[in-house]
């Protein structure tokens, strides 16, 4: 997605905040009181059996004992937050309907632990007993961590079920293609599954996004190249879409559950990108196509934890330079800043600054620097095994944590309440109704005229006495009434604010498409022959116009959300080659400050409808995707579709 128009203002604020970090703040003391909170996190990795389990086993007792040992040690070292890697490579350390059991857990992908043991469920419960938070750490796109694993996928792995979504990097590792919307849907469903089924304190992503610039995603890009002539911008847009939707997925289920990312420590270098840090290293913006700074500016995250795995004074990537740069980015925003620390380098680093006691001193100094900044709320150490193999490091962290501190929670962070600029609807089309819909039973007020009888008020829509608020819409309603497509709820009333039924909305779209009558052999189980819409819904189903709700049910009397109205129309118009251009989703939706309320599946559809003047927003700058559609809205919607079809 492209930046909002006020992005330059945010850059100026961030630069000013960065200056304030260096010159004007009053440092915190290096002593953390018991009343304080501080992120004291530790990453526990499962990929490659780095930390847990030590080696693959399906034995539930062994898995339980090893988890107890990990959590006991974390508690002893004074950590208050554990980031447990539960989805390392397109697989899971928990019972999932989407991803197979991880081979790093049991040795064979798809093989479950014995006795119904669920490592994530156990880890959450045991961490909470020890007074620690547990965040579920996922790697979103990676399917395999080695090309040797490509032939060892379980039959229910998404990469096996949807091979069309899989690409490989230069080393042969498999990834879900970040440029495919269906890949994003799989990842989002995986996130929802965790938040819904487990009492996790957060969902956490690391720094693996696009694997490289040479990733062959040209087929996916072809569909978007008109809207994104620059392929790099398109890639960043797709990753940003994932991040934005991931946060929404978490909050819809558990608002107090944290969502955060631990990206590469360099967003971009000032030498090649305005607003970048005074560094010269590999950056997330250009190498991984992750616009991490934008995510903070738009507050798509509860926290960001950049991996600043460099030492103080390191050429091209100085630790102090980077923590101050990130503090400047986060200071004006409602996003907490924690720092990812390279404990593994202090344990076994090859550079002089990290060797032996130098490494212990460096890590200690870095923690002190974090504590002295009022803009940094803590840190996380990578990774658990580094402390198990180095007694000096183990003792250092216990000393640093000698004074208790609670883990941060969302109770201390004000929930985002963005107030974007209100954008009025374009003058060349009428705004959608601003009156709140009246509560009414839609089953008693069909808008579609019964095709077996003469429609009410044909050619005389002027008899409707309840259209005072919508006088501007009368020419459109007149046209539809003249054609026998819509009718009123009585001789003198149209019922503009009554919610429309799914049956009527679908029938109207089917009629506007001017489909020829066809013979159908089946209908939805809840669409009964005595209903006036029976034949048309059956024909609509046969031609792909009717959209069921699952299990061969249609819910004909149910209401239809505005976003579903747009999605139904877009799918049909796209399939019939009436709409062929890829919508510029960012440009079309940024006019509406509630665009993030649009579910991911409907964003392209609403964008296409907006671009083609089929759908508009309200006078207050909203588009209200989850409002139930009213009779007047759908009538105008199908009329605009009719105009579009007639122009082709």
Automatic annotation (TrEMBL):
Keywords attached to this entry: Hydrolase, Repeat, Signal
Signal is among the record's keywords: yes
Domain of life: Bacteria
Compositional bias segments (type: Polar residues): 412-422
Location of region: Disordered: 407-461
Coiled coil (residue ranges): none
PANTHER family, per database record: GLYCOSYL HYDROLASE DIGH (PTHR43405)
Protein name as annotated: Glycoside hydrolase family 10 / S-layer domain-containing protein
Annotated source species: Monoglobus pectinilyticus
């Amino acid at each position: 997605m492209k930046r909002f128009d006020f992005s330059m203002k945010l850059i100026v604020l961030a630069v000013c905040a960065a200056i304030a970090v260096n010159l004007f703040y009053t440092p915190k003391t290096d002593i953390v009181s018991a009343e304080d909170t501080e992120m004291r996190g530790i990453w526990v990795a499962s990929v490659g059996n780095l930390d847990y389990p030590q080696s693959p086993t399906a034995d539930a007792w062994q898995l339980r004992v090893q988890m107890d040992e990990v959590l006991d040690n974390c508690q002893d070292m004074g950590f208050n937050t554990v980031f447990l890697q539960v989805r390392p490579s397109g697989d899971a350390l928990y019972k999932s309907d989407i991803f197979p059991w991880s081979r790093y857990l049991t040795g064979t992908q798809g093989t479950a632990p014995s006795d119904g043991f669920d490592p994530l469920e156990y880890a959450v419960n045991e961490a909470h007993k020890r007074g620690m938070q547990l965040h579920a750490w996922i790697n979103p796109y990676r399917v395999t961590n080695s090309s040797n694993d490509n032939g060892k996928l379980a039959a229910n792995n998404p990469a096996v079920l949807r091979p069309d979504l899989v690409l490989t990097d230069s080393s042969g590792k498999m990834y879900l293609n970040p440029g495919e919307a269906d890949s994003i849907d799989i990842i989002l469903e995986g996130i929802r599954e965790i938040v819904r089924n487990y009492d996790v304190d957060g969902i956490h992503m690391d720094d693996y996004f696009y694997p490289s610039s040479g990733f062959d995603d040209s087929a996916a890009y072809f569909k978007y190249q008109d809207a994104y002539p620059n392929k790099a911008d398109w890639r960043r847009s797709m990753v940003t879409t994932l991040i934005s939707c991931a946060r929404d997925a978490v909050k819809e289920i558990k608002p107090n559950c944290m969502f955060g990312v631990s990206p590469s420590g360099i967003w971009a270098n000032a030498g090649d990108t305005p607003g970048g840090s005074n560094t010269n290293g590999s950056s997330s913006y250009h190498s991984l196509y992750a616009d991490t700074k934008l995510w903070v500016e738009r507050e798509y995250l509860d926290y960001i934890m950049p991996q600043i795995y460099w030492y103080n004074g390191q050429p091209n990537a100085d630790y102090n330079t980077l923590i101050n740069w990130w503090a400047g980015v986060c200071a004006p925003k409602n996003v907490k800043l924690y720092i990812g620390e390279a404990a593994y380098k202090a344990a076994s680093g090859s550079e002089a600054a990290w060797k032996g006691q130098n490494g212990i001193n460096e890590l200690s100094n870095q923690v002190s620097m974090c504590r002295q900044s009022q803009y940094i709320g803590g840190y996380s150490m990578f990774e658990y095994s580094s402390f198990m193999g180095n007694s000096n490091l183990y003792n250092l962290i216990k000393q640093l944590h000698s004074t208790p501190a609670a883990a941060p929670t969302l109770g201390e962070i004000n929930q985002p309440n963005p107030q974007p600029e209100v954008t009025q609807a374009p003058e060349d089309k009428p705004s959608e109704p601003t009156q709140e819909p009246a509560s009414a039973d839609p089953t008693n007020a069909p808008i579609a005229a019964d095709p077996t009888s003469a429609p009410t008020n044909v050619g005389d829509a002027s008899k409707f006495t309840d259209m005072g608020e919508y006088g501007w819409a009368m020419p459109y309603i007149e046209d539809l009434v003249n054609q026998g497509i819509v009718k009123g709820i009585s001789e003198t009333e149209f019922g503009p604010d009554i919610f429309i039924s799914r049956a009527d909305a679908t029938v109207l779209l089917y009629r506007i498409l001017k489909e020829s009558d066809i013979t159908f052999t089946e209908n939805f189980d809840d669409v009964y022959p005595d209903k006036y819409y029976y034949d048309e819904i059956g024909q609509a189903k046969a031609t792909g116009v009717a959209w069921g709700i699952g299990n061969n049910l249609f819910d004909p009397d149910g209401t239809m959300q505005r976003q579903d109205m747009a999605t139904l129309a877009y799918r049909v118009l796209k399939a019939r080659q009436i709409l062929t251009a890829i919508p510029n989703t960012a440009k079309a939706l940024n006019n509406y400050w509630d665009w993030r309320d649009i579910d991911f599946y409907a964003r392209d559809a609403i964008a296409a409808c907006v671009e083609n003047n089929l759908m508009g927003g309200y006078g207050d700058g909203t588009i209200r995707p989850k409002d139930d559609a009213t009779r007047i809205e759908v009538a105008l919607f199908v009329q605009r579709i009719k105009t579009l079809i007639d122009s082709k």
